[in-house]
Amino acid sequence: MTNTIVPLTMPKFGLAMTEGKLASWLVEPGQSVKQGDELADIETSKITSGYESPTAGVLRKQVAPAGETLPVGALIGVLADPAVSDADIEAFVTRFQAEQSTGEEAEGANSADTEPHQVQAGEYSLNVRDVGTGDDLPLLLIHGFGGDISNWLLTQDALASGRRVIAFDLPGHGASTKAVKDGSLVGLARAVGDLLEALSIPKVHVMGHSLGGGIALTLLREHPDKVASLSLLAPAGLEKAVNMAFITGFIEADRNRAMQQELEKLVHDKSLIGRKMVDSVMRARRLDGARDALRTIAAACFPNGEQGDDLRPVLDAAKVPVQLFWGEADEVLPVAGADNVPSSVKKHILPGVGHLPQLEKASEVNKETEEFLKERVAA
Amino acid sequence: MSKKSFRQAINEALRQEMRRDPRVILMGEDVAGGRGGTSGVKDAWGGVLGVTKGLLTEFGEDRVLDTPISEASYIGAAAGAAATGLRPVAELMFVDFIGSCLDQVLNQAAKFRYMFGGKARTPMVIRAMYGAGFNAAAQHSQSLYPLFTHIPGLKVVIPSSPYEAKGLLIEAIRDDDPVIFLENKVMYDDEEDVPDESYTIPFGEANLTREGEDVTIVAIGRMVGMANEAADRLEKQGITCTVIDPRTTSPFDEDTILECVEETGRLVVVDESSPRCNMACDISALVAERAFGALKAPIMRVVPPHTPVPFSTPLEKLYMPSAEKIEAAVKNVMKQHAREVA
């Protein structure tokens, strides 16, 4: 980069985000950075996350001061080569901000397309967020026990340049039907099959987290023809062990403070769990039927305090490409689950990460997944 | 999920609970507004401010009961119905009218569980409008929650937004004790995202609507919005506030207030009820007794003067707490360093 000026704008971490707070700058003006270096901390209503430099360069100007809340897309800083004059930087900032204020209406029209909507899948009404287009097969994201589409807030849009990426709330979760029938992995995998049918998608790449990983493996067993590849994040079904104290506490917590303590078990860096994240989980949990759904699923999937489904044979016999991520500090499903997997599985053990790799190490998970999916296209 | 007004949120809570449980009935003056008229229209108003509109049509006259203008009779009837198996929601219209039926609440409903050896349940809700700022003069503008909070055996709920109102009202209807549910009449058109499904918010857990390091603001009902506005303005000036909405004054979440004061060391309480023996006094006493050591400045109360609510618009405005008054109080406690002399 010689004369290029790179605008740094407020990122959009997922569906609900319309504005974010620039919590702090991690880089001073004049400092050189590499691509991927964290430039600032961005605080949203769900989570605090690092803002990574899109490219190498020098941070020339911090347009927004720390502590300021800005709409998504607003200019927060400028990256450029030292050769670019200060006057050019100032001119760029003025021009960018002027263009942005005229373009605001068009932006608003776009975001409507990415709003979640209800899709009838068999007997379930599922809350689905469908973004991106491309020639590649679509990617389906299956969240874990007690989660919802917001678990993919750092994943879905990041992987949606060049392909369709679909996230949805499982039955009993988020804004989907609260009924879950027997709550078994087979039943949940059937609901996923019905969703693919409803969306007229014959084949997908599947990414599953935790229980969603177990559902993904079950889907592969029941419908091998529908699954093009598997990306598993700390999946269920590979070990007996599961932290039942967490499962029970997470279902039954009826005060924000109790829920905060449970959510902290999901991550290695406890400061990731903010008040607003706790509040949004509690809002979902307070809906009539939400707790009962989780109780039913827990009873079906974790009978006698351990995992009831053994999906190792499915993984061992998998004829599709598989990648596996597991946080070394996972307190919910121990990282031992990643031991003794077939050598064909592309394995990533992440140090200093808990049970939510897609949020705790979003950039790494996204980068590896992008490569993994591109190799599939090439092959 | 869609944007709903405070009025719609309450209507939806009533409708969903009446669908779920046939024992839930409504009673009150004009809850099926217009029935007494000669126009032939059955549900012309749905209460004086339209909150119960449409419920008569859906649930019929057996479950939506228009009562005579006799608070003592229908509040008493609601208490009796609750004691014998129904789950009545009685609307008192303006909370000021409690004067006409206080015995039914104070000496009857609130005491049943205690007088009958814990065997009686009184699952009744009394809904009522409270608050000044509506130009409704002294007999229709009071904020009487301290009166109910003073009576053991009652639960007292004061929602601060549409989301809060729906979840807290459903919780109130499912609760087995008498609940006083107070709706600020100025807030009926306030809007926010409210889930379409039923949900409950537990009593006795305060909600933090802002988090900061310098000052704790406790605010009740409509005052929460004003406190948030003040906190947002103060943040731009470098002062960050925690805003606590207690949600219910009985039961009362003391722990959250004490914990936040331990962190910030400063307390401002915003209460629109008359200043003597109100919640601001109660909360100040709690903190003085149990968190005195944490205080860096005297506690400040943002409350109206001890006088009936004025009818005159300029005087009523002067009477009310406001975001500006809260902002000034926070700046005041930031200036004071009471304990530096020690």
TrEMBL record, chain B:
One of its GO terms (molecular function) is pyruvate dehydrogenase (acetyl-transferring) activity. Keywords: Oxidoreductase, Pyruvate. SUPFAM superfamilies: Thiamin diphosphate-binding fold (THDP-binding), TK C-terminal domain-like. Residues 4-190 form the Transketolase-like pyrimidine-binding domain. InterPro entries: THDP-binding, Transketo_C/PFOR_II, Transketolase-like_Pyr-bd, Transketolase_C. It is an enzyme of class 1 (oxidoreductase). It holds the Pfam family Transket_pyr. Gene3D superfamilies: 3.40.50.920, 3.40.50.970. Its EC number is 1.2.4.1. NCBIfam families: PRK09212.1. This is Pyruvate dehydrogenase. It comes from Acetobacter senegalensis.
